[in-house]
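To illustrate the input format used throughout this study, we show a single complete record. The first block contains the structure-token representation of the backbone; no residue identities are included at this stage. The design step must infer an amino acid for every position from geometry alone.
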């Protein structure tokens, strides 16, 4: 992958504007997988799932650990409860876990919340919610947050449902989604605020990255059109979840070489709260 590490800068254009993917202050933590069931977040927070399905969250690089009152189904027999079906947001100020199978009727998504680093938890159901597979959750402040839940609809199609909260996760409201424009499995999600959000999808019909974004709280969506160097044409690309600290942010893009069967990651950088973003080869 030496060709990905030359000192170059590329400005990636979206229409007439330069756009950066912003997820807001201290939200959308980048996750790195240490092993199949253990995740470490880039600011020292993380979670793990043991072989019995017991969930633990950790803070300050593992100095503080706490059990989550949730049992993950490691057999894959229970819809919405497998290890790939649980969404996590872990910070010292707020920790949230979204789980469950939801059919829009009696079966609902649930959100577990802790504001004291896992010492105590509250469980809140989301009436009329939908989705059971891939889930993402995040907060842009102590009170405002978002979650996304997906559901497969055959080969090459998955619908995704979006919800927002303004009371710290106790109640949730469904907002608009881009399912009529694009419906696939998600690989990354993030919101800058209640109005501006981004959905990143697994490559399928083209090499990607496929990202749809809204500036009006889900009322309308459009594809984020990106231009990469010609040296990237060989790769298939999956956009992952960005990390942000104030207006400074990173968006990792997973590069998949179909011939060598290798995976690498490059990053896009923001410094202006979502108006521009820069790709730098190293």
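Output of the design step:
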């Amino acid at each position: 992958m030496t060709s990905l590490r030359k000192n170059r800068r590329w400005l990636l254009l979206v229409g007439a504007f330069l756009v950066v993917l912003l997820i807001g202050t201290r939200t959308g933590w980048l996750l790195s997988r240490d092993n199949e069931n253990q995740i470490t977040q880039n600011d020292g927070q993380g979670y793990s799932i043991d072989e019995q399905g017991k969930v633990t969250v950790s803070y300050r690089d593992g100095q503080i650990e706490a059990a989550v009152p949730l049992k993950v189904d490691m057999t894959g027999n229970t819809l919405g409860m497998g290890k790939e079906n649980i969404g996590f947001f872990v910070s010292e100020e707020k920790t949230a876990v979204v789980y469950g199978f939801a059919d829009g009727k009696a079966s609902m998504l649930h959100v577990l919340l802790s504001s004291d680093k896992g010492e105590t938890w509250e469980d809140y159901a989301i009436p009329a919610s939908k989705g059971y597979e891939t889930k993402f959750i995040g907060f842009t402040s102590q009170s405002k947050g978002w979650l996304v839940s997906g559901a497969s609809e055959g080969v090459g199609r998955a619908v995704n449902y979006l919800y927002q909260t303004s009371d710290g996760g106790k109640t949730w409201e469904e907002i608009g989604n881009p399912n009529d424009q694009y419906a696939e499995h998600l690989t990354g999600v993030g919101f800058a605020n209640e109005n501006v959000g981004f959905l990143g999808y697994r490559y399928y019909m083209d090499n990607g990255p496929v990202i749809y974004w809204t500036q009006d709280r889900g009322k309308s969506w459009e594809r984020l059109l990106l231009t990469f160097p010609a040296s990237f044409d060989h790769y298939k690309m999956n956009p992952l979840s960005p990390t942000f600290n104030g207006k400074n942010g990173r968006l990792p893009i997973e590069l998949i070489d179909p011939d060598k069967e290798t995976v690498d990651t490059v990053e896009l950088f923001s410094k202006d709260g979502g108006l521009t973003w820069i790709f730098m080869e190293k």
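Structural context for interpreting the output: The chain has one domain: 2-281. The longest strand covers residues 248-257.
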